[in-house]
Amino acid sequence: MAGYVLKSLRGLEGQITIPSIGAVIGTFQKWSLQRREDGPSRLSGYRLTAFLSYVNPMLVNEPSLTKQITITIRAGRDGFNKQYRLELMPGEAMALDGMSLTVEGVTIHES
Question: Which residues in the chain belong to E strands, given as ranges?
């Protein structure tokens, strides 16, 4: 989302995968991104909150596995869908509590 600084964004579709093996280890029922207020807008990132419809907690919590988070944004009535990849900022980790996922710092990138 180059060139845009959004305060918040919400959606219904997203997933967590392990790209090296092509495994989906979590699917989002709904998600929201909220701009963090702890630094310059282009550096502070977003807080991701997602409610999952499916999750494999053992794989999500396994630190040795590289995971990828993607979200889908629907725009307009014509059903236009755009996928974005979320990257964890340095020092951040995913926190899974039942079917709720929180990441305090992510950046948004085009897929």
Answer: 8-11, 13-18, 23-35, 46-55, 68-75, 80-88, 94-97, 100-110
